[in-house]
Amino acid sequence: MKQNVTVSIDRKLLKKGKVLAARNDTSISRMLSDMLKSIVENEDRYEAARRRALHTLEKGFHLGGRIDWKREDLYER
Q1: Structural domain includes residue 4
Q2: Is the pLDDT higher at 69 or at 2?
Q3: Number of domains the chain contains
Q4: Rounded-to-integer distance, Cα 56 and Cα 36, Å
Q5: Is 18 contained in some domain?
Q6: Nearest in space to 9 (alpha carbons), one of 36, 25, 26, 29
Q7: Residue 54 belongs to a domain
Q8: Cα 24 to Cα 5: distance, rounded to the nearest angstrom
Q9: Is residue 56 part of a domain?
Q10: Which domain range does residue 48 map to?
Q11: Is the pLDDT of residue 76 over 80?
Q12: What's the chain's average pLDDT?
C-alpha cells in the first residue's frame, strides 16, 4: 500500500530534479521512492552482515593446530 508524503525541497534543487526525472523518463516521486528504498535495503543488508560478523566473532575461529605448551615455558620470570 502506498502512502503520500509532503516534503520541502529547495526550488533550485526541485527544478534540477524535474529535469533529471524527465531525462530518465520518471517522476520526482518515483526517484525519491527508489532512493529511499535503496537506502533502506542497504541498511538492512548492513545490519544482517553486522549480526553475522558479531556471531562469528563470538563463536571464534578454529585455525587448526593445538597448544601443547604453557605460558611459563615461554617466558622466564
Answers
A1: no
A2: 2
A3: 1
A4: 30
A5: no
A6: 29
A7: yes
A8: 22
A9: yes
A10: 29-62
A11: no
A12: 92
